[in-house]
Amino acid sequence: MKPIQVGLLGIGVVGTGTFNVLKRNQPEIQRRAGRGIEITMVADLDSERARAIVGEGVAVVNDARAVLANPDIDIVIELIGGYGIAKTLVLEAIAAGKHVVTANKALLAVHGTEIFAAASAKGVIVAFEAAVAGGIPIIKALREGLTANRIEWIAGIINGTTNFILSEMRSKGLDFADVLKEAQRLGYAEADPTFDIEGVDAGHKVTIMSAIAYGIPVQFDKAYVEGITKLSAQDIRYAEQLGYRIKLLGIAKRRPEGIELRVHPSLVPSKRLIANVEGAMNAVVVQGDAVGTTLYYGKGAGSEPTASAVIADLVDVTRLHTADPAQRVPHLAFQPNAMSDLPILPISEVVTSYYLRLRVADQAGVLAKVTGILAEADISIDAVLQREADEVDSDSASQTDLIILTHDCQEARMDAALARMQALPTVLQTIVRIRKEELA
Ligand code: HSE
């Protein structure tokens, strides 16, 4: 059988990896897919650079629409990124009857409903393994491997840049801004790292996972997203003394009232495997009712790791594109007519435990006042740590840090208690509140 022909839109880092791995492993891939898979056309604005990467024998154009117009191309890989022209081209590719493979998490998390509807109407596949956690086959695991389960929760380190920054802050005792500069110098963080450090990239990825896990539409606009920019080395140190590490987690959790969908820094017990995922690595823990806890670990970015996921999708599409669309695995794991309308819960309704740090006047009765407010709010305390004045990063020996770990409570209740504590004249700085996940 003739190889299936693929058109590639955008040949940057991941596109180059995809081209090279596909070429290098073609015999293996062919044995798995049942026929060859060849990138025969590449569109990139920098066609000279593209030509240097792909060599002769591959058509190089700078107009992506030339790829969409080519009737010999069955699959289009979109590696442009973003919501702009990428969205237009993906919708045009679908309209032209092409299957689409994309790594574009932002596009799917925000416009996925429209894109999957268009693909279903046209009977084509939109595959997106590379959109979440790079080379880790987490989409396949959630959609197919765990299909017997009611997924209870997912918690993932799904942004390598922020995990690298947090690892460096912890191991070197440095503050966020210093590590960010170093990460940019080393090329780990983008020149504009906003999407990474503000949690947006992780928010896109956990939104996609939530849709597959619970059969709900992608709803990035309802996700709670908080990044790592306000974390201090001091809190990382205190957390460690209490047996925790701080990680930026993407969390999707099923509750009877709805789905919690959130990204924020979280304390995680140091003894959990995921707490020990360091540097730019990614990991996702999935809790299913039948399987229990499963953990997926690997490179969440990079040229060939991400290419690994892109090519896995190419093989899937090659195997399935002639199948009756009704017999294929649904885009979001659940049949489109069986989607759930379970709401995404606002952050005020999230239930979790907390780490609190209060800089207080070191006077009699201060601790009693603080714990009294928590008791009145029915918030149960798990642990309290008071640092000696000389351990506190302060010139004044009359101040101290109170660190409190709580048991689970609703966020709205914690907000109200925090407002009361903050109003105490003996609380001298803005209270630090970091959520805590036991992941038990
Ligand atoms: N910028 C992402 C990260 C990789 O740092 O993990 C692509 O999603």
Helical amount among residues, as a percent range? 25-40%
Q: CATH homologous superfamily of the largest domain?
A: NAD(P)-binding Rossmann-like Domain
Major beta sheet, specifics? 11 strands, mixed
Structural domains: how many = 3
Q: How many strand units?
A: 17
Structural class: alpha/beta
CATH level-two architecture of the largest domain: 3-Layer(aba) Sandwich
First CA to last CA: what distance?
Answer: 50 Å
The CATH class of the largest domain, by name, is Alpha Beta
* Beta-strand percent range: 15-25%
Q: What is the CATH topology classification name of the largest domain?
A: Rossmann fold
Helical run tally? 15
Catalogue the ligands: L-homoserine
Describe this structure in words.
With 440 residues, the chain is α/β, with parallel strands linked by helices. The chain has 3 domains: 4-133 and 303-338, Rossmann fold (3-Layer(aba) Sandwich); 138-299, Dihydrodipicolinate Reductase, domain 2; 351-436, Alpha-Beta Plaits. The chain is built from 15 helices and 17 strands. Strand 4 (75-78), helix 5 and strand 5 (99-102) form a beta-alpha-beta unit. Helix 6 runs parallel beside helix 11 and helix 8 crosses helix 9. The longest helix has 18 residues, at 105-122. L-homoserine (HSE) binds at residues 159-161, 196, 201, 300-301.
